[in-house]
Amino acid sequence: MVGLSRSIAAAILLLSMTTLGFAANKVIIILDASGSMWAQIDGKPKLEIARESLRTVLQSVPADDEIGFMAYGHREKGSCDDIQLIVPPQAGSASAITDAADSLKFLGKTPLTAAVKQAAEALKYTEDKATVVLITDGLETCGGDPCALGKELKASGVDFTADVVGFGLTADEGKQIACLAENTGGKYIQASDEKALQEALVETVAAPAPAPAPEPAPAPAPAPKAAEVDYNLIPQAFLKEGGEVPKIDVYYEVFPDDAKGVGGDHVNDGYNAVKFHVPAGNYIVVASSGAAKAEQKVSLTADKATELALNLNAAEISIHARPAPGADVDRNAQISIAYPGGTSDSNYGEVKFVVPAGETKVTVKLGAGEASETMKLAAGQVVDKDMIVGVGKAKANAFYTQGGEKAETDVGWKVYKAAKKLDGSRDQVTYAYGPDSQFDLPPGDYVMGVDVQAVTAEQPFSVTVGQMTDVSVTLNAGVLAVDAPGADGFKIYEAKKNIQGERKQVTYAYGEKMQTTLVAGDYVLVTNFTSDKAEKETPFTVKAGERSELKVE
Q1: Helix (H, G, I), strand (E, B) or coil at 213
Q2: Which residues form a coiled coil (predicted)?
Q3: Is 370 within 8 Å of 389 (Cβ atoms)?
Q4: pTM (2 decimals)?
Q5: Is 122 in a helix, a strand, or coil?
Q6: Is the model more confident about 75 or about 313?
Q7: For residue 269, which of 152, 170, 178, 165 has the smallest C-alpha distance?
Q8: Of 213, 209, 215, 157, which Cα lies nearest the Cα of 186?
């Protein structure tokens, strides 16, 4: 995890120092603050990785560089207009940007196209050189067209560039937003996992400078030029030598075979059935699919097509998460794949993934249920597997009376194991809020506890794998509404006194009005007034399934 945080920090520093050219540029960094940034990499939320990375990088930025900071999705859920330039481009903005990132909430949508356009306008891109760096872990969700925007900004700008970091995106997702960078002459950096991001940094930042080239020998007389072919490199990756081609995306990169090697800039790249034409010379070809990677050296000429086979030494697994045998795939089930050298956690419902040969552990979690299996996979092996979590569902609702009106407001649920411990308590399994709450639970006996304002009730129930259990809890309660002009607050007591002559307090509220749910029975309302007026006691009765209204003056 430390390596990943440093890698992301270096990636942002790369965009700020190499692609952007700090000395004369104004730069706005846009951070995706949508709800998906709560997803984890190696057990740590992506939003925390981003915050730490910004803090690390900005410590290295010269004080006179003008850096701004924008975010979207950080103030409202479901809003496509939630875009804010928090720190305008200015010198010495490192501390302000760090503070802003630390205070962000991550909860909204992904209007990345509109955010990039607003950042460009804030930089006056039609008048001055301008650069925008977008860090996003999701695709456009507000109807924008990032590809078209890239062309528009490039055509109308003086010298506009957009660089895009795809944080945790799949290869297919990356292709949908890479065009925003490519159409402006910027870079798209795929940061799918720690290893891929570190290699991107070695390629663009950390590679040592090549040794000075020797003085060239006198050029010989040019030989007659052979006819060039359209494509002189056709790579293809296989799970093993002579095996199958992966059924998921394969990403190819072609690097010069020089002092930098795969740590330098690639000369070409592409996906799946791709063909390249590169200048004659020596190259290193790298193929990546899922968590597997292979590389091979090759010498190319301009007049011959070279077909190159790369051995990933990997297996392909297809996992389908089902709550019960024969049930449909459940899209809420999280699938975690622990393979040699890493873990992939951002998978839900079903996933197809390529892993290095060796021991791989697949864990599926659905609600309170969990299932796992460890597989020893050989190179070339293809596994298509249903993972059965073994849970049933329970749907809970509370009713004021048996068969009466459903409670809709301030409904809180807690699910406990039915068996009590030695001290009489029960282990809590899970919780939820609101009517029609559903729970995925392993088979067994449970107790459903519900709180509706001042009322608490329980209902035992059992769960069977693959079946839905409706749990109806009867509150035996009604609703009290109080209006007391000039009041400061209220306390409600049970009407019956104990042997010491004291009443049990049930609930309380502040202000001139209150409404609460109470178990059917007799009570006393004590009203406090803001003036010198004495407290006033008002006896009342609550009937199950009925609403009682009191006016206190």
Answers
A1: coil
A2: none
A3: yes
A4: 0.56
A5: helix
A6: 313
A7: 178
A8: 157
